[in-house]
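Hi again,

Forgot to attach this to my earlier email, sorry! This is the prediction with pyridoxal-5'-phosphate bound. I've pasted everything inline since the attachment limit keeps bouncing my files.
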Amino acid sequence: MTAGTAVSPVEARIRAANTERAGAFVGYLPVGFPDLATSIAGAIALAEAGADVIELGLPYSDPVMDGPVIQRATQAALAGGFRLRHAFEALREITAAVDAPVLLMTYWNPVLAYGVERFADDVVAAGGAGLITPDLIPDEAAEWLAASDTHGLDRVFLAAPTSSDTRLDAAVAASRGFVYTVSTMGITGARADVDSAARTLVARLREHGATNACVGLGVSTAAQVAEILGYADGAIVGSALVAALADGGLDRLTDVARDLASGTAVLPAGR
Amino acid sequence: MSTTDASTRYSQPGPYFGAYGGRYVPEPLVAALDELSAAWEHAKTDPVFQTELADLHRNYTGRPSPLTEVARFAAHAGEARIFLKREDLNHTGSHKINNVLGQALLTRRVGKRRVIAETGAGQHGVATATAAALFGLDCTIYMGEIDTERQALNVARMRLLGAEVVAVKAGSRTLKDAINEAMRDWVTNVATTNYVFGTVAGPHPFPAMVRDLQRIIGDEARAQLLERTGSLPDAVCACVGGGSNAIGIFTAFLDDPGVALYGFEAAGEGVDTPRHAATIGKGRPGVLHGARSYLLQDEDGQTQESHSISAGLDYPGVGPEHAFLADAGRATYRAVTDAAAMEALRLLSRTEGIIPAIESAHALAGALELGRELGPSATILINLSGRGDKDMVTAGEWFDLIDRDAAQS
Ligand SMILES: Cc1ncc(COP(=O)(O)O)c(C=O)c1O
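C-alpha cells for the complex follow:
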C-alpha cells in the first residue's frame, strides 16, 4: 500500500518542485467562502500565483482541527448555503483551469454520509487527486484505503510530534501523495514561530521511509516557507491565505500567495 | 452481584461496541488517548487506586446513594412499584461526580497539573471544578454561550470553585461546540492537560472508562433492590444525553435477561418537529466527536442542531455503547417531550417532595407511561440522575411561579 505503485500526481508535482526549486508550496482554501464563485476563482488564483498543490477545504459543522480564521470562513460558507455537491462543482472547475493537483481536505463524516465509494467516484470524475482526512487515522481507515486503491486516489494522513514510531510507520505506509507533518501541537492558525518539533518530526519520518513530508500548521510567511523547505519537501499554508481572501479579496490573496511562493525559490544552504 | 470485567454478549470492553465506537480524532491526540487508556487499564485493577476512589465516594460524595420507593408518585404510573436511585443526593447534585473523581485521580497519576472539561447543563463542569479544587488542579471549563445564559447559576458555582469558564461562541453555541473547543485546547496543551470528558461518548477510552466509573450506580442499585424486594426490577429507566447515567445504571443489569432497559431521549417540542434531541430515535450512524454512533445529521453529514429544554440532554450525538445496545435490541430508546418532562418534574415535587433535574424528569415521564403499560405487578427502577436546583429559573418560567412584582421590587 506504500506510495510508489501508481504515479501519484501530487507526489510527482512535489518531486518536481524539489528538483526545480527548494520544494513545494501547498495552499489551502475552503470551498464556498466568501461564496462559491469567489472560492473557485481564489483557488485558481492561488495556483496561478505559484501554489504547487491545492488543498480545497470542505466546510464542516464541527471542525476540531481548525483555529478561528478557518472556523469563521467555513462557518460562513455553511451559513451561505454550502452543500457537498458544491465541492465537486468547485473541484471540476478548478482542475479544468489549472495544472496543480487538487486534494480535498475533509473531516470524515461528510464522506461517510455520502458513501465512501460514491465519494471516491465523484472525486475522480471531478478531476480531484485525493483526500486529506484530518480526523481519520489509518487505524479506522480500512474502507478508505480500499476505495482509494481501486480509484487510484491519493490519501494524506497526519503525523504529529507525539506520534510513536509505530504510528509514524503506519502514517507513512498508509499515505500516498505526501505525509502531512503537523509542525506543532495545536490547531490551524498563523504562528510567529514554526516549532523546531517540525524539523525533528520530518527527520523521524524520513527514517521511517517517508519520501514526501510536507509541513503545516502555523506557516504564514515566505521566510517560514523557505526555512521549512530547508528540511521538508513542502510547506503548507492555510489560515494566512484565508485571512488574505477575507480581508482583501482576490487581489490580496494573489499578493500573499505570490509572496509565499517566493519562499520556494530560496535554495537552502548546502543543497 | 455480577460485576466482572469480562466481555459478555452485551458488555463490551471497547474500543468498539459492535459497529460503533473507535477513534476518529486528529493524529496529535492519539498519544494522549493511548496514555489515558493505559493509565485506566492499570488503575481499574489497582487496589490502591480503587481504595482511594472508594474513600472519596463514601466520605466526599456521600455514597452509597439511597434507594427511595415513591408510592405516591407511582400511583400515577399504573400502581407499579417505583424506586428511585438517588444520584441527586450526591455532592454537587448529580451522577457526574462519580466519573469526575475517578478521572481527577487519574490526572494526578499521569502527572498532569491542569484539567479541562466541556459542560452543557453545567453539572459536569461543576463536578470537574469541584474535583480540581479538591486536588489543587488548574481548571478550564468550556460551555456553549447559550448554556452559560440558561445555566447562569452553575457558571457562578464553577467560578466560585476557582475554575475559568470559557463561553464558546462558535457553531450552535451549545454542548457540541463546547466539546470541539475543549478538544482544540487539548490538542494544544496535551503535555500538561488532561481532558475530563463528561459522558460515555467521545473517542476510546472515554466511552468505556466513563462507563466503568459510572457503573457503581447500577451495582449499588441492584444490590439495594435485591435486599429490599428480594428480586430484580422488571424495568430500568434513565434519561439519555450522551448516555453516562443510563449506562451507569444499565451495566449491572445487562446480563439479566428479565430486566428490560429503557433510555429516554429528549423529544423537545416533538420528534416530528426539527426541535428535538432524539439521536437514536431519529438519527443515523455517523461520526461525531471521535466516535462512530448515532447522530443527528443532514444528508451531507453536517451535524444538526438539537433542542431540549434541558441543557444536559441537548446533544445531537450519543455514546456508542447505546447505539450498540439499541441495534442489539437489548435496550429500548424512547423520546419524551419538554412538556411531558416538566409535568413529571412537578408531579414528583408534589407527590414526594423531591425536585428532580429536568434531565432526570425525562426518565420519570418515561416511567409514568411505562408503568401504565406494565401494570401494578411491575417493579421499575429509575435513575434520578440529578436535582433540580439548577433548573429553578426554567421551571419558574415554565410554570409561571415567579412573582414579577416581587422580583422587581
Ligand atoms: C442531572 C443530569 N442528568 C443527565 C445528564 C445527561 O448526561 P448523561 O446522558 O451523560 O447522563 C446530565 C448532563 O448534564 C445531567 O446534569
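Residues B 94, 120-121, 123-124, 199, 239-246, 312-313, 357, 359-360, 385-386 surround pyridoxal-5'-phosphate (CB under 6 Å). The interface with chain A takes residues 22-28, 30-32, 34, 170-171, 176-177, 180, 183-184, 187-191, 284, 286-290, 295, 297, 299-303 of chain B (CB under 8 Å).

That should be everything now.

G.
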